[in-house]
Amino acid sequence: MLSTAEQDGAQASPARIRSLQAQLEKLNQQADQLVEQYLQAKLELQHTQKLLGSLRADEQQAAQVLQDAQDRLGARAAAAYIQGPGVDLSALLDSRNPSDTLDRVQVLDLLARQDGDLMDTLKVAGDTYQQRKQALEASQREQAKALANLEAKKRQAEQTVDRTKALLAQVKASDRARLLAAANNGGGSGSGGSGGSGAPAPAPLPKVAASGGAAKAVAYAKAQVGKPYVYGASGPGSFDCSGLTMMAWAQAGVSLPHSSSAQYSATRHISSSQLQPGDLIFYYSPISHVAIYVGGGMQVAATHTGDYVRLQALHSGITGYGRPAG
């Protein structure tokens, strides 16, 4: 139970700040994992929906082929019924010219083969249709599971967001700014922080040249500093970590998935000695956070709930580095 002073946003003691920082860092780690799981579930659902659309088109095409084969067979059956089953045989026996008889035998043989081919076509079309229908139904079941998984991950992420907001509400604005800066910068002092409850004050941006697509990505990321963090957001007014890097590289025509771990898989892995502006920096194991390198040992990152897009120094927890193909 919070004291009245804490509920009113009273000045927190240094010991209290340290305790809250430890709690916030733990919540941030939990949130990173849950948000990443939510984004992975979202990607899985998108993939299933895309597959479902393709299978639905395949099923419709197979149904049309089956219908065409059934129509052709029906037409043949109707013709045989109207003409009678012995018409072709009687015509053959009535022929007085051996040459005509031979020609008619060849025609009947051709018709028999065509009917056989038609029956084979009908069977193949029927089998194909059933296969496509079963695949479509299986994909629909997978979609339902993916949607349920997405909703569950979303609820878990939102619960963590609520706990983070409740924790931040325990301290007054000036303490909150210091708390966020420390917790969202790996325990160090945050660059681009502010003395109040608003967005970080502008900080000097490193003047490191970038070229090609990387220059566009870096320029975009820098321009977003100060915008609030919102999980699942990809601009223009707010971002989460992978939403920011995704949109930054989109300015260079490079498509990245909205997930830090998926972005790691989609980029060329490099070493720290190869790091250049525009490269992506991945954090934690399993990967659940990403930032964009802007040079001078600095990165731009959408941090965590209650905070903003920040310019900050690289910090502990780095898992790897990736270079988008741009």
In short:
The protein is of the alpha+beta class. The chain has eight helices and six strands. The protein has helices spanning 4-7, 14-83, 87-94, 98-168, 173-183, 212-223, 241-250, 260-266; strands at residues 268-270, 280-283, 289-295, 298-302, 309-313, 318-323.
Topology:
Blueprint: H1 4-7, H2 14-83, H3 87-94, H4 98-168, H5 173-183, H6 212-223, H7 241-250, H8 260-266, E1 268-270, E2 280-283, E3 289-295, E4 298-302, E5 309-313, E6 318-323
Antiparallel strand pairs: 1-6, 2-3, 2-6, 3-4, 4-5
Could you describe the 3D structure shown?
- This protein is an alpha+beta fold and 326 residues long.
- The chain has eight helices and six strands.
- It has a six-stranded antiparallel beta sheet.
- Helix 2 crosses helix 5, helix 3 (87-94) runs antiparallel to helix 4 (98-168) and helix 6 (212-223) packs across helix 7.
- Mean pLDDT is 79; it is low at 1-9 and 187-197.
SSE order in H/E notation? HHHHHHHHEEEEEE
Helical content stands at 55-70%
Give a short account of the largest sheet: 6 strands, antiparallel
Q: What is the molecular shape? A: elongated
Could you report the average pLDDT, rounded to the nearest whole number? Answer: 79
Q: Which consecutive residue ranges, at least 5 long each, have pLDDT under 50?
A: 1-9, 187-197
Q: Enumerate the strands of the largest sheet in spatial order, edge to edge or round the barrel.
A: 1-6-2-3-4-5
First and last CA, distance = 52 Å
Q: Rg, please?
A: 33 Å
Structural class: alpha+beta
Query: Helical element count?
Result: 8
Question: What percent strand?
Answer: 5-15%
Task: Report the count of strand segments.
Answer: 6
